[in-house]
User: Fold this.
Amino acid sequence: MPPSILIAVAEGSEEVEAVSTANALRRGECEVTFASVSNDKTVTCARKTKLVCDALLEEVAGKKFDFIALPGGVAGANNLANSKTLIKMLKDQQAREAWYGGICAAPALVFKPNDLFPISGTCYPSFQDKIEGALNVEDRVVVDELAKVITSQGPATAIPFGIKILEVLSGPEKASAVKSQMLCIE
Assistant:
């Protein structure tokens, strides 16, 4: 069975981070589900791109995913942080020692205030003051193996973020093949 990934999105989520992450994962034959935290499957992203989700978060809240990924975008991350259902799902993921991750503003605005931020992690540079004390904060993509959390910095790091998720779920060989296919230089 292929790894299952939930990408939770909200009004104002950064579309490049959401779609590029999904693209890398789908190329690696993962089952990706986009879920809206609002009551509408159509989400208007940070740069006005409309994204039609596969489901509402409430519809998939009882499902166990191998990974839960959060894109950034300040408004989107704040909207994700306000979803009690999403925070519960992330806490459950953490409790069962399953992977989750976020990019851009999500680690600082969703993970940190909810005790979900790992010891090693990063986020968008202008939010790094909110994760003071974190290790490896300058790295573009950070994997905290102990906490099972992957964090990344922003739009330009979305594909490497997706490939790193693929690597932890499907192995380095699969990740390397997708990396090559996508012409990644990192």
